[in-house]
Design goal:
CATH architecture of the largest domain: 3-Layer(aba) Sandwich
Strand content: 15-25%
CATH topology of the largest domain: Rossmann fold
Order of helices and strands: EEHEHEHEHEEHEHHEHEHE
Number of helices: 9
CATH class of the largest domain: Alpha Beta
Number of strands: 11
Length: 326
């Protein structure tokens, strides 16, 4: 099925006197199933910093109907999708340079989303997360959100609450890897330049603490271990952030010891974060840490994954600038 494009290229661009998001996103895909959570995802996507000439694709995937179209299938989805896109165009009426595209497809949601993200060179896929159940249980392997994170070769932003404003309390969990560096850089792009970003590293001391427990070590030895590990982590984190401090960005250092998942969730809860970012390697699409954080976080979660630019680009577009390396 061919996508429908709502194009506004014929309208004038923003006046020269208005600020432009020079480092904003160029290609964003929003998953839409017409639930309240997907409406939150669309609202959040429209609050992201969009570059001049950006494209926002609103994707709805209908299940196959045994080879035919029925009144409760793709036809109804097309009408609802058109209303959602029209609503997005109204919200972006001050950004006539942004294209809002309708993408109506049939098939398996993660497979279709992965194909579309690859074809369009999407930088971020924005989806809604089902409301959490209490008591909180891990996301099942069949969860659509979990499959999207695993199978879509692009960064995935999972939206939980209603986006009342732009992100202003972001938290980035890093492990000093290349993926962590890219996760921090993507978060810097999504947040206003004046927004402080807290950067957290959790030193995994579970094995050492288990050894002390078996030895029935005194409290002083426990405290000495944690203090030494925290000092080491602070020095490494300071060096990790040095290149970004030269840009004038305000970056806070947070260090914890113990279980990484518990430390990340606890820090996010204590700081009342509205965005929690983790880096994911494309070579290891499945990570118990990222999936555990995704299933238990109360705020939006950004799973950052860097991919190479597409082999072919639309006419007139240049490939994205490469991110910094370790």
């Amino acid at each position: 099925m061919r996508p429908t494009v709502t194009s506004r290229r014929g309208l004038p661009l923003l006046p020269e006197g208005l600020p432009r998001p020079l480092r904003g996103l160029k290609r964003v895909v929003v998953g839409m199933d017409f639930s309240l959570q997907s409406e939150f995802a669309l609202a959040r996507a429209l609050r992201l910093p969009l570059a001049q000439g950006a494209a926002v694709s609103v994707l709805h995937v209908s299940p196959p109907l045994d080879g035919h179209n029925g009144p409760d299938g793709t036809v109804a989805g097309e009408r609802c999708l058109r209303r959602s896109v029209a609503s997005a165009c109204r919200r972006l009426r001050q950004r006539p340079d942004v294209d809002v595209r309708e993408e109506l497809r049939v098939g398996d949601v993660p497979n279709v989303a992965a194909e579309l993200a690859k074809d369009q060179g999407a930088e971020v896929l924005v989806v809604g997360r089902p409301p959490p159940k209490y008591p909180v249980v891990p996301l099942p392997d069949t969860s659509t959100v979990l499959r999207l994170v695993r199978e879509v070769d692009a960064s995935v932003l999972v939206v939980a609450p209603h986006p009342g404003r732009v992100y202003h309390r972001p938290l980035v969990a890093v492990s000093f890897s290349r993926e962590s560096r890219r996760a921090l850089e993507l978060t810097m792009r999504l947040c206003p330049a004046s927004t402080p970003i807290e950067v957290l590293h959790v030193m995994d001391t579970r094995e050492e603490e288990a050894s002390l427990r078996r030895q029935d070590a005194p409290l002083e030895q426990w405290l000495r271990l944690r203090q030494e590990r925290e000092n080491t982590a602070r020095e490494a984190l300071w060096r990790f952030l040095a290149p970004y401090r030269e840009t004038g960005r305000e970056l806070g250092i947070r260090v914890r010891t113990g279980d990484p998942e518990e430390g990340i969730l606890a820090e996010s809860l204590e700081r009342d974060s509205d965005l929690l970012t983790l880096g994911m390697s494309s070579a290891r699409p499945s990570s118990p840490l990222t999936e555990g954080v995704l299933g238990h976080s109360r705020c939006d979660v950004l799973i950052s994954r860097h991919v190479a630019p597409p082999a072919t680009l639309p006419v007139g577009e240049a490939p994205p600038r490469p991110l910094a390396h370790d």
